[in-house]
Amino acid sequence: MTTQAPTLHPFVSGRFSPARFRRDHVIAPAEIVSLIEAARRAPSAGNSQPWAFVAGARDDAVHRRMVRHLARSSGAWAPDASLLVANLVQRRVEDGDFAYSEFADYDLGQAVAHLTVQAHDLGLQVHQFRAFDRDGLHREFAVPGHWEIATLAAVGLPAHAPGEVSGASTSRDRRPLDEVLWTVADAPAPGNR
User: Fold this and answer.
1) Whole-number Å distance between alpha carbons of 32 and 119
2) 51 in Cβ contact with 111 (< 8 Å)
3) How many Å apart are CA 128 and CA 74, to the nearest integer?
4) What is the pTM of this model?
5) Where in the numbering of this chain does the Nitroreductase domain appear (predicted)?
């Protein structure tokens, strides 16, 4: 499929996941509330809202408790973020064995995406990651069995430009449009994938 290069919203084309954060940035309590409020307003299947969050501003008690459970790889950069957010998904109804929603992970992703857009509006960037001890965090925050910490998000001011990590360049390349768009209305589907 050959198309003209699309015009993208500046947030979409400029978003990146910082690998280093500025320690001199302090996030305001009102900004934290606005991030969680943006996540709270995300759409969800049947308005089930299967999400919850644990948020710790750098160097507060919650943040210190979260940092103890980071993996070596994320522990090298995530503690410097102004805010760490644990993103929880509801797996089943309390006191029940049936699944809460087959869309729960998707819905949590929507909520974190809304948080990411709000962070951008505040001049911040978000780096979502999974390099942490999930069981340790569950114990640390007494997460009930029907909930799961799916991911963490580090939020703050980046200490580097997009594509630059500790002086090295990292690729922000994406797969070509032809590889991710299978078909367009009134056009044949591409060959086998």
Assistant:
1) 9
2) yes
3) 10
4) 0.85
5) 14-156
Selection from 17, 19, 53 nearest residue 34 by Cα: 53
Q: What is the 3-state secondary structure (H, E, C) of 9-68?
A: CHHHHHCCCCCCECCCCCCCHHHHHHHHHHHHCCCCHHHCCCEEEEEEECCCHHHHHHHC
pLDDT in 10s for each residue of the chain, 193 residues: 455 667 888 888 888 899 999 999 999 999 999 999 999 999 999 898 999 999 999 999 999 999 999 999 999 999 999 999 999 999 876 655 555 668 999 999 999 999 999 999 999 999 999 999 999 999 999 999 889 999 999 999 999 776 665 443 355 677 888 888 777 776 666 655 5
Distance CA 159, CA 147 (A): 33
